[in-house]
Amino acid sequence: MKELSLKYGCNPNQKPSRVYMENGRELPIEVKNGRPGYINLLDALNGWQLVKELKEATGLPAAASFKHVSPAGAAVGFPLSSVEKKIYWVEQYGDLTPLATAYARARGADRMSSFGDFIALSDVCDVMTARLIKGEVSDGIVAPGFEDEALEILKAKKKGAYAVIEIDERYCPEPVEKKQVFGVTFEQGRNDYRVTKDVLENIVTENRTLPESARTDLMISLITLKYTQSNSVCFCKDGQAIGVGAGQQSRIHCTRLAGSKADNWFLRQSPQVLELPFRDDIGKPDRDNAIDLYIGEDYMDVLDEGRWQQIFTKRPDVFTSEDKRAWLKKNTGVALGSDAFFPFGDNIERAARSGVKYVAEPGGSVRDDNVIKACNDHGMVMCFTGMRLFHH
């Protein structure tokens, strides 16, 4: 197939719409089920690149959850703790395959943002991973292949309309890429920069102790940023992105957004959240929404009289600001990547409040000394990679 017609572009009024190969080659994708849309394919192609590079960098199966051309989550197949299984709603599935574990992490980090996502997998989709996907609200999936039973499970989603795309893992794009904006053609060399452990060698802080686990998390953070709409900042821990701040004009706003998402990820693991007495008839999406409100500033939206009865079997206690701060202090060893240099130390101050211990950024700001000092004040390890990772 050299061309694929689409229902419409980004919006229903943008017709006609299609994807095709200008050089006459075959498309590197095959639609196995459903009818993917324009944004679906943008998510699929960006997501595939991300998980492919994660696997190449770590040697582990990888998964990504994409929404509107930025990852809501990305992860590799590290085993899940009992608490993580509970907050990702996968306890009932028993032992997970490494690929299913990667997917559970990618989907579970920011469940609010991942609602209705497009999934990317680095490996052939197995039955266990398909079963997890079956239970989530999602628009589609891209993978280098599908086990027969897994494909049948996925085909049954969305009343048979679920988009399933198989990508040729051997496909290599042309070295120069093009796109049009307002009728003007842009051309640039493809970003083929590879993130490896070598890019973390230039440590500029007094603390130079960078454990292997932190190196892996920093690589995951940087690779995730490579396919996140800029400006962007990514918090990582235990082999997964736990907070992505994408598309902000100000670097500090990226850091605040990513930090708040990382905080929410950790707050979900608190006893106050784990013990919430949900009614049996409340599904996962509604539970996620309720948890998001409960741990936020609008907690009375689920605790007011007449509202809590619709969600819980008994009224939970308020999760106070003091209790939340005390719990968040337990989150340590977090890794942080930035797609461009930090211009001010305020980013580091905000990162420290979310347990950040390891930082990777390009460096090159006239205020690098200020940022390094802020890291030293908090005992952080910071690497200058020398490489900006803007993505638009």
Query: How many H/I helices?
Result: 14
CATH structural fold name of the largest domain: Cytidine Deaminase, domain 2
Main beta sheet strand tally, sense and closure: 6 strands, mixed
Radius of gyration: 21 Å
Low-pLDDT residue spans: none
CATH homolog superfamily of the largest domain = AICAR transformylase, duplication domain
**Span between termini:** 27 Å
| Class by alpha and beta content | alpha/beta
Classified by CATH, the class of the largest domain is Alpha Beta
> H/E order of the elements?
EEEHEEHHHEHEHEEEHEEHHHHHEHEHE
Residue fraction in strands:
15-25%
Q: Tell me, what's the shape?
A: globular
Number of strands: 15
Summarize the amount of helix as a percent range. Answer: 25-40%
**How much is the average pLDDT?**
96
User: How is the largest sheet built, in terms of strand order?
Assistant: 3-8-7-6-4-5
Give the name of the CATH architecture of the largest domain.
3-Layer(aba) Sandwich
